[in-house]
Amino acid sequence: MQDNTGPPGLDQEPGQASRIDITFDNRGNRLIGLGLVNGVLKVLSLGFYSFWAKTEVRRRLWSFTRINGEPLEYTGTGKELFLGFLVVFFAFVVPLMLGGLAVALFFPGNRGALAIYQFAAYGLFFFLLGNALYRAQRYRLSRTRWRSIRGWLAGSPARYGWTYFWTLGLPFLLVALLTAFVGWAVTPVLAGTVAVLGVIAALWVLPWRSNMLQSKITNDMRFGDRPLSYAGTSGPLYKRYFFAWMGSALLVVAGGFATLLFMNKSGFLESVAAGERPIPTLTQIAAVIAIWIVTIVAMGLVTAWYRAMQYNHFAAHTHLEGATFRLNASGKSLMWLMLSNWLISMLGVVLGLIAGGALVYAAGLAPQPSEPGLPSAEPGIVLVLLIMLPIVLATTVATTFAQFRSARYFLSRLKLDGPVDVAAIQQSASAGPRLGEGLAQVFDLDAF
């Protein structure tokens, strides 16, 4: 086994810059067994092992990534992730739950008080979302090492979180205030039109916003004592964004039309027009959900060309000393990556359901119809385990393999053009956070 504990640049003297070669080993088959083990341990631990499972997957993916032939090392632990989750859960989630309970107790039946609390809770959630993303990135960088040199983020999670919040929250807040004013001063019908046009206009801040956020987090990045820098602008993104926006808008219109057409054929709209208040059936609900799942997936595929250009743009304006990153992503390949990963995840769910049903049937534990007047038997713990075990196993293997494919796609296409004096890079002064990315765990945000 190669020793990676020594300082970087053992083969050169400080002041002698060399090129950096980034490669990714194609060993995804080694993650299938890991996914099976992680799935079993998740079931046996009732989900608590998920923090350790995520850590093991990261260690494999990091070790597949090589810089000048030397693998990256991930030094994070499942314990750090677990403790970080607990801290945020009791400091954030529990108080929110208690606040909702207090509103229900002190203002029973008051929909206005409940609406105000929910609005404040959602606003806090969105405000903390950027903070969570920054902290998660800071944790992962601090636990990433190459030849013992670690990365880190030198900025403030609160400052990044505030930028994340106001760059999207402020435009939509202005739209909401304008809509409310028009509805009060003119007519509700015109207010609806203003709301739709306002949201359409507000969405045009997204390229500018993504470029600003990329600039902030990249300029905070360090590898050892060397800073990364970003100097890109949002102007070049807008041409491709126009087509992504148009395609998404057409798909939303098509999804809305398909929903109305189905509800009309099923008789639901006819009942509404007759003054009734019909309750949608499970079939109607499932059909509408399916329509919008297809619409959302199609929107993701349509916008793949814009996102490929965005990723390439971000890389082309990111620098480490005199070297510049370069990413060779394309809309077609990114679209296939998204679609195939989604199909792999869905296949895991389907196979898990089929295997679970087969186990239940083979064990003779399938629920039997009870006689009239007798209570139906409750499912036992064995029945639940027989159903959940194959589902968790199949989905864990599928998602682990999809994560590998995403990492392989980006890292195998990432290059660094230009020389870097790696021997002169010194260790960073910051050791990073003591606990894992707690907010990101609560919000279910993860890179790998």
Descriptive overview:
About 65% of the residues lie in helices and about 10% in strands. It is an alpha+beta fold and about 450 residues long. The strands form two sheets. A nine-stranded antiparallel sheet has the order 1-12-11-10-9-8-7-6-5. Strands 2-3-4 form a three-stranded antiparallel sheet. A hairpin with a 2-residue loop joins strand 10 and strand 11. The protein starts with 17 loop residues before the first strand and ends in a 5-residue tail after the last helix. The model is unreliable at about 1-10 (pLDDT under 50).
Topology, element by element:
Layout: E1 18-20, E2 22-24, H1 30-44, H2 50-64, E3 65-67, E4 70-71, E5 73-74, H3 78-106, H4 111-142, E6 144-146, E7 149-153, H5 157-185, H6 188-202, H7 206-219, E8 221-223, E9 226-230, H8 238-265, H9 268-273, H10 282-302, H11 304-316, E10 318-320, E11 323-327, H12 331-362, H13 381-412, E12 414-420, H14 438-443
Antiparallel strand pairs: 1-12, 2-3, 3-4, 5-6, 6-7, 7-8, 8-9, 9-10, 10-11, 11-12
Helix pairs in contact: 1-2, 1-13, 2-3, 3-4, 4-5, 5-6, 5-7, 8-10, 8-11, 10-12, 11-12, 12-13
